Amino acid sequence: MLFLGLAVCQPAFAGKPAPAPTGVYEVPKKIADNCSVPVEDKIMAWLATVPDGSTARFGAGRCYGQDGTIAVAGRRNLVIDGQGSEFRALTPGDAGRANWRFTGGASLTVKNMAVRGSNPTGEYVHEVEWQHGYSVEGVQGMTLSSVQARETWGDGVYLGHSTQSPACGDDASSARNVLIAGALLERNGRQGVAVVDAEYVTVQDSTIGPVAWWSVDLETDTNCEIARHINIVRNQFGANRYGVIGSVGFGGDPQVGDVTVTDNTQTAQTGLPGECWAPVWILSPDAMYRTGYTFRGNRFLARRNAFEFRRVRNIDVSSNNLTLTPTIGCGKRAGVLLVDSHSVGITSNLFSGANYVFVADSLSSGITATANSTS
């Protein structure tokens, strides 16, 4: 590294960019790797010495203890390879602790890594619901590949902003271009994946559940946060309290919308015994509409309605296989429930056990339903 630093200072290289570091940096052996003591401060000190454009690599199959957050801020073109290691909370921690928090920066990759919180049963507790596994805040390009998040009090993966946007349309600090692939998220005390302020997000080929609330929640907290251009593809969803896909927070066009959900499978029922939540509900707030929702080739489970839409435009529900199980107290069952929703195509779905293919209120319009079955 000394040679590179000197070379950049020579006159012959004036005006030329310094070559990007491409080396692999191994975690120092002096950092305890048996989860005997918290080591987040030592890990952060070491990561600060790893240049952008490099790979930081942890010990294969080792365990690193935590009391606080491992924070990574403003980094670019950095790969963090866990090599199958786990980062485990050894103490209850404060309300805002995350196992890993990434703030700002761009083009980051985290792979082959597991995190574990201090919530072995995966229950929801309001006071600590912000203890996420991976908190991605305002990063411009983030890949989480073959990662795991277990027993967190908060979300397995949280996607939000790095600073509060002052007005609608000021989205520079939102997370962007995020890929979550091959993840295992289970016993999370809130969501598996929470998209709070982010766009161009893909969740694919992952196993999510059991979780305490939603498997994937598009949960903007204000009308100016964004949750748009989302792809949820080929995932397996286990038990959840409120649904597989939920979007019931704030915001409408153009902040929230353009969501595609294809070829996913639900393996455990939504809700506690006797509860009637739909596996999918997209509910726009009063006086707002959302646009562009595609659900195709999914296999979901329901006790009442399969899909619920309120104030949503341009909906495609096609080639899905839904099993709706009669449940005392849940009433009649519809494949699709529409409230003030428009330009809806419902095609070639099997809503096994449903009483109706769809039910729509008087405000809804432009509904086409063909080649569907309830048997």
Please describe what this structure looks like.
This protein is mainly beta. The chain is built from two helices and 33 strands. The chain has helices at 2-9, 40-47, and strands at 24-26, 34-38, 55-57, 63-66, 70-73, 76-89, 100-103, 106-116, 134-137, 140-150, 157-160, 175-181, 184-186, 193-195, 198-204, 207-208, 214-218, 227-233, 236-237, 243-247, 256-262, 265-266, 280-283, 290-296, 299-302, 307-310, 312-318, 321-324, 334-339, 342-347, 350-352, 356-360, 365-370. The strands form three sheets. The protein has a 19-stranded parallel β-sheet that branches. The radius of gyration is 22 Å and the shape is elongated. Mean pLDDT is 93; it is low at 1-19.
Number of strands: 33
Distance between the termini: 68 Å
Query: Which range best describes the helical content: under 10%, 10-25%, 25-40%, 40-55%, 55-70% or over 70%?
Result: under 10%
What structural category do the secondary elements indicate?
mainly beta
Major sheet summary line: 19 strands, parallel
Radius of gyration, in Å, reads 22 Å
What shape does the CA trace take? elongated
The portion of residues forming beta strands comes to over 45%
Overall pLDDT metric: 93
The low-confidence parts are 1-19
Number of contiguous helices: 2
